[in-house]
Amino acid sequence: MKSHLQTYPCPLQINFFWNLGFLLGVAIMLQIVTGIFLALHYTSDLNSAYYQIFFLIREVYYGRCLRYFHSAGASFVFLFLFLHLGRAIFYGSYFYSSSTWFSGILLLFFLMAIAFIGYVLPFGQMSFWGATVITNLLSPFPSLVEWICGGYCVHCPTLKRFFLIHFIFPFLLCGFLFIHLFYLHFLSSNNPLRNSTNNKIPFFPFIFLKDFFGLILILCLYFLQTHFHVSSLSHPDNALEASALLTPLHIVPEWYFLCQYAMLKAVPNKNAGFIVLLTSIFALFFFGEIRNLTTFCLLNNNSFSLSKSYFFLLVLSFLWIGAQFPQEKFLSYARILTLYYYFLLMCILFRKKKKK
Q1: Angle 208-228/20-39 helices, nearest 10 degrees?
Q2: Any idea which of 35-44, 170-179, 286-295 has the lowest mean pLDDT?
Q3: Catalytic residue among 70, 235, 254, 280
Q4: How far apart are CA 54 and CA 63, in angstroms?
Q5: How confident is the model at residue 354 (pLDDT cuts 50, 70, 90)?
Q6: Predicted TM-score of the model (pTM)
Q7: Is the peptide bond before 142 cis (omega within 30 degrees of 0)?
Q8: Which of the residues 79, 146, 190, 259 has the least number of beta carbons within 10 Å of its own beta carbon?
Q9: 166 given a catalytic annotation
Q10: Mean pLDDT across the stretch 312-323?
């Protein structure tokens, strides 16, 4: 334990971007703790799930803080996750330790599944229709919708199954989290120089002080969001009770799913859109194989870094387009950017070194 927490050698050159992994871990632990307390007051019944949330907010002491701490915490988890993933892509961590990268992408899949299932549990208007849209994507697979939903549509058995999965999956996530940390400590962290170095410093007190400062910072952000509602992170339609007879004007997911939602809207065919949605995430696995596809010297190449900068700008554009109404001009933008997304992936993954 001492070798991993106190005397664990860390590269001298790492900066505050390397604290994002610690902040992500803290945010996940806070989600698990608050989720356990929320589960004590939640009822996975179709007729009472929505009202149970409002009972928690209005009647339970500090229930409002607990509920918004958990719901806003999901956004903080994905904020730290995307920043952590962006740092790994920009500084070439996937090349330094492919095993750490693969375990991290598995954590991404787990977190996305947990977040989507948890978004359905309040059973507001947007939760119900979001679950309906996503479960309908599974209709090409025989009996899969019936097996997941307990019927042909989102109903009472769906809510019970989603609540069970949402409660169990975070504990499985902790297992993958320890695997991720094992591979990380096996080779130590990467650094901004993008190469191995013998300039090491002990984790305590140097890195520990940075992590502690980041912990204080995110606790302040949690406090501001929970008590002062600095930013409305959830769609207002989700405060309405779910109704199968009233379709929202615009079905839109939480902000951290907007990139995939933009790609899904861009493809007219439902099955093809589902394939594009999956491959846009599965493509990240190929970064772990970049050792076999290119050379490490390209990570310091200006044009190579420029391709990754365009990649980050593309993600921000997807976030904006995913939040827009499905009008023809926005759908056209989404189609162009989807093609450009795969083009940039090919530029990053299969770029060859020029011969002199």
Answers
A1: 40
A2: 286-295
A3: 254
A4: 9
A5: very low
A6: 0.90
A7: no
A8: 146
A9: no
A10: 90
164/139 Cα distance (integer angstroms): 22
Whether 185 sits among the annotated catalytic residues: the reply is yes
> Which residue of the set 210, 270, 289, 307 is catalytic?
210
Residue 9: its H or E element: strand 9-11
Catalytically annotated residue among 160, 185, 270, 289: 185
The tokens for 30 are 């806070």
Residue 308 known to be catalytic: no
Least Cα distance to 242 among 129, 157, 145, 131 occurs for 129
- Could you say which of 189, 234, 280, 317 is catalytic? 189
Which amino acid would we find at residue 289?
A: E
Catalytic residue among 97, 98, 211, 280: 211
E runs forming strands in 142-269: 200-202
Tell which phi-psi region holds residue 14, choosing left (phi > 0), alpha (psi between -120 and 50) or beta: beta
Amino acid at 57: I
CA dist 109 and 16 (Å) reads: 25
Of the ranges 176-180, 191-195, 345-349, which is most confident?
Answer: 176-180
The Cα–Cα gap between 123 and 129 comes to: 9
Taking the alpha carbons of 283, 287, 292, 294 in that order, is the dihedral positive or negative?
A: positive
**Taking the alpha carbons of 73, 78, 79, 85 in that order, is the dihedral positive or negative?**
positive
Q: Looking at residues 215-222, what average pLDDT do you find?
A: 89
Question: Which pLDDT band holds residue 292 (cuts at 50, 70, 90)?
Answer: low
Q: Known catalytic residue: 211?
A: yes
SS (H, E, C) 245-263: CCCCCCCCCCHHHHHHHHH
252-350 under CATH 1.10.287, yes or no: yes
Within the chain, all domains assigned CATH 1.10.287 are found at 252-350
Is-catalytic flag, 354?
A: no
